[in-house]
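As a warm-up, study this chain.
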Amino acid sequence: MTNLNTILKQVQKPGRYTGGEFCAVCKEKEKVKERIAFCFPDTYEIGMSNLGVRLLSGALNEIPEVWCERVYAPWPDMEEKMRENGIPLFAHESRDPLTDFDMVAFTLQYELCYSNVLNMLDLAGIPLLAKDRGEEYPIILGGGPCAYNAEPVADFFDLFSIGEGEEALPELARLWLSMKEEGSFTKEEFLHRAAKLPGFYVPSFYAVEYNEDGTIARFVPKYDDIPMKITKRIVKDMDASYFPSEICMPYIETVHDRVVLETGRGCIRGCRFCQACMLFRPVREKSPEVLNRQAKALIANTGYDEITLSSLSISDYSRLDELTDGLLPWTEKKMVSLSLPSLRVDSFTKELMERMATVRMGGITFAPEAGTQRLRDAINKNVEEADLMRACRVAFQGGKSSVKLYFKNTPPTETYEDIAGIADLSEKVVKTYFDTPERNKARGVNVTVSVACFVPKPFTAFQWEAQDDLDVLMQKQMYLAEKITDRKHIRYNWHDAHVSHIEAVFARGSRKLSAALLRAHELGVKFDGWDEYFSYDKWMQAFNETGIDTKFYANRKIGLDEVLPWDLIDCGVTKAFFLRERQKAYESVTTPSCKEGCAGCGANRLGGKTKWCPQSK
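Now compare it with the structure written out below.
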């Protein structure tokens, strides 16, 4: 590519752009019939650590006629050089521009990545609005958690994959191949046929009508033969699902430079603010035998010396003892360490601590989420203060001296007493350390308190609730800072409330937000997930100039009978269940985990090989 090698000498971390990594998938262009660019709208270091990209691009590359390549967002220094030299955004493997591809797919992991999506399309020379792209341009596909409410970015995408894509995306690719082969392909007809496949949403086929107050009146389908509800796709048998035996090895350090072993999907808990818990239901697990085999293959083919067991709640994996019993004999011999993230305090035991003896980490992380029992019950955390203190005591007895505690700030029903409870709980953890005779006395205790602002998310019990106004969010953050008096042992971190406000706007946004996103792009907004580039002022300018009241989306309680922007999507969990859970939250009544009994969320109707859901197929 013209001038690329020269440019790489002038930018930070040229290894982000060189390609040619060990185990990168390269095919002969002359022998493939369909080319797909899989885009991660953030830096190479983050994208290379994303398991979903590995799974979906790998599943597509299993099709001999398809070549799926990787694309990442260039850092601003690289983008500047590319624009100066007329170099469009290119794929990692072939270095071909995105306009050479048949389909360009974006994974949408976080609302703050939307600005990078537009910037990447612009850098590729692809018109941003779907209505402006003719037959000569690739199909633009979106997927990932944010696709469950795709309305804020609906004007920029041709279609969305809803749910898990290991089976859905190859099915879509084969539809494209068959239509090309039979000579029936036009963009309109392809989208029409794709809209009839399970799990695909074509936003241009659904007109949105609004009430005078700005709420949605109804969605009107363009064709009679497309569904009024798009039901998410799931992988029913995790043991039989695609998983790579080798992965592309980066030349530079990435965020997660290790083997990531996915033990299953879904969560048997039901935290009422947690979207992931609901989106990935029903709970499905891989067997220890399959996981052990996959771990051995990846360690042999990568040379990594650490395995992370990935799950929304790894200590809830029902066969964890069997899994670790199978892994530890050979991982210890090979000096491969195991990492167990997302541990729950009520299932953290001395036995589990002993199994973690090979883990190379200085501390341990728990998520009490709230400072008082009343609020923990309201959000359905289902843990008690005694559970946290017992878990911390076990950790301290095991030699740990650093504990990270994650909390949610300003969830529904929170009071200032609940906020003060975060400080009290943190100080009790410090006291537990000094009250533990077997503690590591060579180091002083270090408790890190990280507090995130509550963001109401679609497909949760709190999807109708309002986020606190920006000034209230910041006031509560400062209130907690005043309540934490032990600055020697407790460090307090909090999320930028301005970022959380923008996140809430897009999380619950309608299609009207596309105009504001387009204007923000024109103002130079990008890399919103990075502190040095996020600009609240530019976002507010874009909203003001396009007539968007951000409080309408973020700070308003939504009527329970209101048509929601995401009502076109069926995530498996019923709205009736969410309404029941919302009422329980206001009564501070908990719902037991799936292990203790079925609460009737409705996800079992999707089927799936699971031990938790009754009547699953």
